[in-house]
From TrEMBL:
GO terms for biological process: fatty acid metabolic process. InterPro entries: ClpP/crotonase-like_dom_sf, Enoyl-CoA_hydra/iso, Enoyl-CoA_hydra_C, Mitochondrial_ECH-domain. GO terms for molecular function: hydro-lyase activity. The keyword Transmembrane helix does not apply. Keywords: Fatty acid metabolism, Lipid metabolism, Transit peptide. It comes from Falsiroseomonas bella. This is Enoyl-CoA hydratase domain-containing protein 3, mitochondrial. CDD domains: crotonase-like (cd06558). It comes from the Bacteria. Gene3D superfamilies: 2-enoyl-CoA Hydratase, Chain A, domain 1, Lyase 2-enoyl-coa Hydratase, Chain A, domain 2. Belongs to the enoyl-CoA hydratase/isomerase family. The lineage of its organism: Bacteria, Pseudomonadati, Pseudomonadota, Alphaproteobacteria, Acetobacterales. May play a role in fatty acid biosynthesis and insulin sensitivity.
Length: 267
């Protein structure tokens, strides 16, 4: 992943923060089959890395991601099956990447410096948090080329209200960063020159917490969203009970009551 020719760049920023950057700027960081595989591999490595507490997902160049690589897709239409097998594999790999972000123990923050469209917008919607530059733009414009953004709709409909998601999907219109913030697609919007600093500050804020607490909290959050209300409460009650018995909860509550700074052991 490291190196100037890599599809995905990894940099450890210290204090438990790792930055992954899409690195196909000349192709508008289109999510080729190989780039999706690189993201998948990186997430698998990070998942078991106790030194990584927060992940920033960013991109090189002026575009965050234009979505699936349409040139790659078009090229596979010459296959004997018209591209069906490749399309199925590409959609499956993309879904695996999105689910890996959700399942990753560490929180993932999207650092969005420019346009994020189609599966690129899906990537932003999938991340736990997102910080956007004032120059960022978002769209799911598949409808404009006869290809409804059905898989991006999965993440988008879970990040913004249903009618807002449908408007983006049915019109394909681009929305600005401030609009995206109002919808809840991104958490905050900052001046372009301050984007990297602001994203890193947020990441370090989270990284300073108990990694054990953050990990079980992220998992519980995503698990309960798919459950009926009573089951969601039952699940989270069980999680909180176990959390209360953890060393970091004992330390944290003790530090709060004793008016001192906690010392996390991440267990």
């Amino acid at each position: 992943m490291d190196g100037g020719n890599a599809l995905l760049l990894r940099a450890d920023l210290g204090e438990g923060v790792t930055r992954l950057a899409l690195n196909r700027p000349a192709q508008r960081n289109a999510l080729s089959f190989a780039l999706l595989g690189a993201i998948q591999d990186a997430l698998a490595q990070i998942a078991d890395d106790q030194s990584v507490r927060v992940v920033i997902l960013a991109a090189e160049g002026p575009v965050f991601s234009a979505g699936h690589d349409l040139r790659e897709i078009t090229g596979r239409r010459a296959d004997a099956d018209g591209g069906r097998a490749f399309f199925e594999a590409a959609m499956r790999r993309c879904a695996q990447v999105m689910q890996a972000i959700v399942a990753l123990p560490q929180p993932v923050i999207a650092e969005v410096q420019g346009v994020a469209t189609a599966a690129g917008c899906q990537l932003v919607a999938t991340c736990d948090l997102a910080v956007a530059s004032t120059e960022a733009r978002f769209a799911t414009p598949g409808v404009d080329i006869g290809l409804f953004c059905s898989t991006p709709a999965v993440a988008l409909s879970r990040a913004v209200p249903a009618k807002a998601a449908m408007e983006m999907l049915l019109t394909g219109e681009m929305i600005g960063a401030e609009h995206a913030e109002r919808l809840g697609l991104v958490n905050r919007v900052v001046p372009h020159a301050e984007l990297a600093e602001a994203t890193l500050a947020l990441a370090r804020n989270i990284a300073a917490r108990s990694a054990h607490t953050v990990r079980i909290g992220k998992a519980a959050f995503h698990r309960q969203r798919g459950l009926p209300l009573a089951e969601a409460y039952a699940h989270c009650a069980a999680v909180m009970t176990e959390n209360l018995l953890a060393e970091d909860a004992i330390e944290g509550i003790g530090a709060f009551l004793g008016k001192r700074k906690p010392v996390w052991r991440d267990r």
